[in-house]
């Protein structure tokens, strides 16, 4: 990834000039100058992604490779996930945990055959690199990828668009990942994303990224989409944002991420525990006792309920806090993620959000707030 600087503090992705040419509004994000929206605007970009195809620059994310015969075993000692049995050509959602069971970052791990390919959050990138360097054995080589961009093409038309240059993308199902050539460019393509829609994430040479992105953007179905709509899309589909819905004081059980803890790593599993915070996390799973849980909330009124809003029960006791919130352009109602007392983390429970001095009613509802459309085969 290019390390040119727009100021003493901000980095640019390889697509920076293209964003400016497309009229993007740029904002600082995770140390980068990033597009928050384009001329279409956040709401229309969101809806377009749900209806056709949105193109996202996610080159600020960290791309890492792990080499060595012990790479899978070594990484598995840092995450509560089955890495050793991850098939070649598949990727898996994972969590770095600390000794208290808190979440240091969430990431994607792929088995590329001769190495593991990791994509980590931009804001945690250096921390994750340091964490890996501190804990990996000497026979596992960490390669920090600096010369590649990362694009996401998301939406119901994504496969049709990408297949015009490489029909093999139709053979992929959700969480598959393969090296493939697209219009003469060597890419790593995964059928995955952060919107709840079908789509692809494409890692490719930084030098070729701008021309490749411009090629995709010329398709009638494709519009550029910025960070604003990326956030509302992921929230509608119940996907967490690290630093907001997840942090180092939150356990996977509190975060309602039990599905991200592989059965083989749980109590009674073939490779039980063995990751940081295992005692705390496995105890919480077994006893089903946590004081708070992540839930989805839907507003009874039309007022948006934003991050940081305090939550109360019917008796006026503070019972939680909102970690993400907006009015969902597709859901067409106020939606939020929040942590609430465990006894209120039940579907249909009524909770009150304090917005500008008023207590607004909200209901606990199942996430995702809109259906996910992953192609699972």
UniProtKB/TrEMBL annotation:
It comes from Vibrio cincinnatiensis DSM 19608. Belongs to the GcvT family. GO terms for cellular component: glycine cleavage complex. GO terms for biological process: glycine catabolic process; methylation. One of its GO terms (molecular function) is aminomethyltransferase activity. It comes from the Bacteria. Its EC number is 2.1.2.10. Keywords: Aminotransferase, Methyltransferase, Transferase. Residues 15-262 form the GCVT N-terminal domain. Residues 292-370 form the Aminomethyltransferase C-terminal domain. This is aminomethyltransferase. InterPro entries: GcvT (IPR006223), GcvT/YgfZ/DmdA (IPR028896), GcvT/YgfZ_C (IPR029043), GcvT_C (IPR013977), GCVT_N (IPR006222), TrmE/GcvT-like (IPR027266). The lineage of its organism: Bacteria, Pseudomonadati, Pseudomonadota, Gammaproteobacteria, Vibrionales. It holds the Pfam family GCV_T. The keyword Ribonucleoprotein does not apply. Substrate binds at residue 201. It catalyses: N(6)-[(R)-S(8)-aminomethyldihydrolipoyl]-L-lysyl-[protein] + (6S)-5,6,7,8-tetrahydrofolate = N(6)-[(R)-dihydrolipoyl]-L-lysyl-[protein] + (6R)-5,10-methylene-5,6,7,8-tetrahydrofolate + NH4(+).
